[in-house]
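Homework-ish question, so no full write-ups if that breaks the rules, but can someone show me the predicted structure for this set?
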Amino acid sequence: MMTINPYATLAETISPSVIQAFILVMLALIVIGTAVQMIHHKNVTYFFNNAKKAKLAAERELGVGEKTSVILKTVVHDIATTAELGVGKRRVAHVMGMYGTILFWVASVVLVFGYTGQGTPTSTVWPMIWHVGAIMTCVGGYWFWLFLRVDVLAEAHPWYRVIKADLFVLALLACATTGLAWSYFQSSGSTGLGYLFLILFITSNIVLFGGVYWSKFAHMIYKPGAAIQKNLAEADGSRDNLPPLADAPKQFGLGIKREQPKHY
Amino acid sequence: MSTFVYMTRCDGCGHCVDICPSDIMHIDENIRRAVNIEPNFCWECYSCVKACPNHAIDVRGYADFAPMGHSVRVRREEEKGTISWKIKFRNGTTKDFVSPITTKPWGKFIPKLAEGEKVKEGEINTQALYTEPKGLNIDGELPSVPKDSFKKGVYY
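A: Not a homework solution, just the prediction itself:
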């Protein structure tokens, strides 16, 4: 199952151009949903107003080289390893889910556009990446959803309480889970179950990408933006009006930060 | 006035929920970020502001002594044992302060309060406590919270 391209098998009954068109529609839904959300929630307006304020409060002007270095450091440290979440389970779960999702989506695009349909080569590596990505998404995502969500962990709500904020994570988990199930049943010859999970896979994709406006999908775009702005503000001295770091050695260990919040 | 949360900075970790003495910092159900659910009950103790690892919480000062355009922000660095304040006035004047919050490693040299003065036998029957224990409206023992359930770094 792991080395079989599920889209190539599907292309025996559905035209590859239909599958490709579906992916393009999903991409368009991301762009439209994010743009409409940004206009409606005024995220970008807030972001640029904040950046303007930070520029006014800056103690020194950053050169292009310095700015590039800060942005690169942010991308490598803050964004690629979600340093914002500190050290702990939340960060591990997030990193696993994030890279799993990226692998899953990239592999989907590569498989559909490069290895699906008559006359295209077969690959064993990309289907493997697709499956591993989906499994990583499931592990990180279910770990987060069942145990680590702050309102489960800190507010003592039961794990099965579903609210609007869960739309993104649940749709993503449904995509990865039903995708894996579809691939498994299709490769094992269970046609009926294969089709059932294919329909669920398509539905969860439509919900995930069609629900960008209502879900937390766009955080993938504006969270990195906010991290870059925060680090630029640290570098130019404006620091969102925060005081500078104290000039003292780290010698007393951790106090209240020793334990993650979980007492509710 | 009360605390408020910068949504782009908050990651919903829950440190503010843990530390708020009024139990009014909660996690919003829809956006899963911290929110002050009862601003009127906030006494601006700054506990959450100092505890927030992302500096996502700020306080709006009362307009009579802290007019619009001001800023009072704080950075608590517990490993360094320091707390730094930056006060920014409306005319742009800024003042920076750094103070120690500990001079010893956290979690060591905790005063042994439990070994202090013991309650005197028979005190419960004095006139000063004439309504107790009946007035406490409890049956039997006083309620207690096991000490091992306290958050690390919080000492009693």
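Now go work out the reasoning yourself. Hint: Chain A touches chain B through 46 residues (CB under 8 Å).
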